[in-house]
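Appendix B. Raw example, untouched.
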Amino acid sequence: MEKPTSPVLPLERQRDVAKSIDEAFHAQLAKANLGLSPISLTLAYADWAMHLATSPGRQLLLAQQAAALSQQALRNSLPCAPGVDADDKPVPDMDPRFSDPGWAKWPFNALKESFKASETWWRESTHVDGVSSHHQHMVSFFNRQALDALAPSNWPTTNPEVLKKGRETLGLSWLRGYQSYAKDLMEYQKARRIVDGDRLHPLDFEVGKDVAVTPGKVVFRNHLIELIQYTPTTDKVYPEPLLIVPSCIMKYYILDLSPANSMVRYLVGQGHTVFMISWRNPDASDRDLGMHDYLQMGVMEAMAAVKLRTGASRIHALGYCLGGTFLAIVAAALGHDGPDSQSRVRGRNPHRRQEDGIALDTLPELATVTLLAASTDFSEPGELGVFIDDDQLNTLRQAMARTGYLSGRQMAGSFQFLNSRDLIWSRNTRRYLLGQDEVGNDMMSWNADLTRLPERMHSEYLSSLFLNNALASGHYRVGGVGVTLMDIKAPMLVVGTVRDHVSPWQSVYKIHQLTDTQITFILAAGGHNAGIVSEPGHAHRSYQMDVTEKDQIGLEPDEWVAKAPLFEGSWWEAMHAWLQERSGKPVKPPVIKPADVLCDAPGDYVMVRYAD
């Protein structure tokens, strides 16, 4: 008698098929929503709408505010003498979109004031009791995105500057704008069809020729990094080398742009022996590289190589953005006093041999730790928090599972979305409506040099740090051992920037609550990139700086801003003085041994580009 076929196996196959269908459907939904999860967005607006619908008192208050804002907009748009400053000159609008004098005249002033009233009302309307903080953040963010798109400055018939420019040039500015639009549209369509990396559009500033030209040698290489040692330019150098850990979501040469604004060249010129990590631009075969690989194969093996090639037992270390987060984790692991801190750190990936683990006690001591625009507490991640919840991460994981990585285009699109007012709408107004040609610069060229992130690393980074805030809570593990930032013993220099959309300075400032060491905090003018690239002589640069001593209770961010001294000029000079004060007596520069040289800087990894 035949045994009945078990229904388990067919059921498993049916589940796999169902899962594949679901993932394919979710992929199309995400594609139609610019990579975002429509479920997360729907839940956020449903949460807000239902709480508002059941809050009649809040509705009444919002109605009153709408009437008051309408009256205020009407008064501000009536013909009257415009506000003037001490020199009897019209006071320009603080919003750069409406800075042109034409916005002070009717009917454009009425359009402007009506739009500003709408912005204020929608911003206030998102605050409803009972709505989760994440959903409130999402609603506020996407409302602002929609309003930015509808701003009267974005449309030719409602922008007085566009109309005036068109009259003055007899329509030539409009023609140039249309030509630019047609050109960009053709480039976009061409880029979507390109699958061969050799057909990438060349960068305006060539790597190794126009940017990343500080002389040096690649002295170490593994599957994940190249380590560049820069050639000294001074007769003597400080005995502690400086290792720079840039973010792996960007090419390292943001810190070595043109000679005039290269942080690397500046530091070398001040007598520092500088090493730079250049991260590999991953492909599909690297999908299993995880966070621990970036810590061990990246930061730790670089530290070991610096010690081996210079003989220095103490080094300075500087991390930028995500590289700063990596550095903070390693610094905490090095500061751990328990016996497990001497364990070897290994991960599981096909590119590492079993004996490739790094013993923490073989690494050099950290004389100082410098973090530039680097988050360590992710409880308030700023605008990036819009993209962080379980459903958003699941959508992202499904997309990465098909390729093995997060593409550079996806990453660049996310950062553009975070600051769409400046990077999309204001740019479009200048280029397409005013007919202004974009003046390329080295930072714009670097911004177009996109990088990928491996699937596993990016998923672990978002889940452990952004979603669960494991580092700040003391739950992050290195080599099987939990690390806490309180274990960092080295003095720290921490830099935030005023207009940072990626790592808000208030979030960066939270390092004061997580450590018990001396912290010198600098708040620099500018954004996430432009605030860091702040070379001496750069016009309109300033920064605030103050020190919180060990065991001293740190101030709240707003209190710190009110108290900290303001300095004009570049904070790079303050950084050099800070490093100099914590360095030994200058010595002869270390020799770069010919046997260690693999190739000239900028190396091979930085040259790898992909069309996606």
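End of appendix B.
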